[in-house]
Amino acid sequence: MIDKDLSVEFMGVHFENPFLLSSSPVGNCYEMCAKAFDEGWGGVVFKTIGPKHFKVDEVSPRFDELTKEGTPFVGFKNMEQIAEHSLEENLHDLKELKKNYPNKVVVASIMGTNEEDWEELAQLVTEADADMIEMNLSCPQMTSHEMGSDVGTNPELVKKYCAAVKRGSDLPMMAKMTPNITDMIPAAKASLDGGAQGIATINTVKSISNIDLDKKVALPIVNGKSSISGFSGKAVKPIALRFIQQLRTAAGLELLPISGIGGIETWQDAAEFILLGATTLQVTTSVMQYGYRIVEDMKNGLMHYMEEQHVDHLADLVGLATKNIVPAEKLDRDYKVYPKIDWDKCIGCGRCYISCFDGAHQAITWDEEKRRPSVNINRCVGCQLCNLVCPVGAITTGEKVLKPGRKGNAADKQVESSRLTHF
């Protein structure tokens, strides 16, 4: 049994492990959050609490999925708004959670319509014994333009509302950022100027996931109509990783505390977020598919990864990959990697030939009689599309070779001279 230290310190708060329920339907009441704690989650971000005067009026149905060839959904669309329970019920649940689970982290997610709302909510959740505050500045399906992602794209409002929360509470506070923006850095810096100590990102991406071709309405259909709303799940992970990397490499934000969100389903996903700079990890969509128990798989996988990397403390992995992502103009363009075909694995399906001819550089030739592909390196640019489409893993990335005509050292020349016999 591998036992590694998964604990982290985030914005001055100790977490026994980095995994939290994100503010969503999966953490909507005491019973749900308590079960998650019992299953081993390090913390919960309770579903966003709004002001007393704001009435939540949900639609039905309010979910849709994006699938591929019958797999569990790749993406998930929801029209869910903030917590539908009364303010009193939500505050009671926060207090009970902290009383009954003193070693777990209870994060109160709040959302107001003006400075007074934000300040009052901050004060109320502090009195309810929350450990931290998350400001929801990013929900894309609020019915009021005074709330959600319309606020998160406005750095001036972000700063003003963060300052209001700090007037109402001295708890550690993070601002939850919207991905529905070209550059997140100005809004993130505005939140820090207003008093936030960290960032949570990303919230869901504004989307239309599917169209009913007969009814000619987007899904889900609500009495004949639909609406743009938030998209989550595995499909948004690349967007989340991009924003986290950009935040952690922006001038002045190199040590920014980040709670990563967006498509985390496996320990590998979790490791990617951590390596790009996230300290804690928030999860919703995969819980909706598989239940709270997935946290055990993610924790065990991370500990095995740490063992392989000879790392004892999870915190030592945070941000290690950021330095290896550079602007496109700084990438080394002086070599190629040609594909290598393993004839023992090749099943002669022709998939690589079709993809290369129709979608790349016509660099794979096809022997119809033997049903065997081969690489023409005089045309191949090393894009590796054939590698990606091969259904049996018969094509791999070959050795690094020099561009034709480039002068290199003795080792480079040896690789260059051997490339014609590599296939």
TrEMBL record:
Q: In which pathway does it act?
A: Pyrimidine metabolism; UMP biosynthesis via de novo pathway
What NCBIfam families does this protein's entry cite?
Answer: PRK08318.1
Which InterPro entries does the protein's record reference? 4Fe4S_Fe-S-bd, 4Fe4S_Fe_S_CS, Aldolase_TIM, Dihydroorotate_DH_cat
Q: Which residues form the 4Fe-4S ferredoxin-type domain?
A: 337-369, 371-400
At the highest ranks, the source species' classification is: Bacteria, Bacillati, Bacillota, Bacilli, Lactobacillales
Keywords annotated in UniProt: Flavoprotein, FMN, Iron, Iron-sulfur, Metal-binding, Oxidoreductase, Pyrimidine biosynthesis
In Gene Ontology terms, what is one molecular function of this protein? dihydroorotate dehydrogenase (fumarate) activity
Per its UniProt record, the required cofactor names are: FMN
User: What is its biological role?
Assistant: Involved in pyrimidine base degradation. Catalyzes physiologically the reduction of uracil to 5,6-dihydrouracil (DHU) by using NADH as a specific cosubstrate. It also catalyzes the reverse reaction and the reduction of thymine to 5,6-dihydrothymine (DHT).
Provide the Gene Ontology terms for cellular component.
cytoplasm
Mind telling me which Pfam families this protein's record contains?
DHO_dh, Fer4_21
Q: Catalysed reaction per UniProt?
A: 5,6-dihydrouracil + NAD(+) = uracil + NADH + H(+); (S)-dihydroorotate + fumarate = orotate + succinate; 5,6-dihydrothymine + NAD(+) = thymine + NADH + H(+)
Q: Which GO terms describe its biological process?
A: pyrimidine nucleotide biosynthetic process
Provide the E.C. number(s) assigned to this enzyme: 1.3.1.1, 1.3.98.1
Subunit record text? Heterotetramer of 2 PreA and 2 PreT subunits. Homodimer.
Gene3D superfamilies, A to Z? 3.30.70.20, Aldolase class I
Identify the species of origin: Secundilactobacillus paracollinoides
Which compartment or compartments is the protein found in?
Cytoplasm
Q: Which PANTHER family match?
A: DIHYDROPYRIMIDINE DEHYDROGENASE [NADP(+)]
Positions the record marks as coiled coil are none
CDD domains (alphabetical): DHPD_FMN
Protein name, per record: Dihydrothymine dehydrogenase
The UniProt family comment states:
Belongs to the dihydropyrimidine dehydrogenase family.
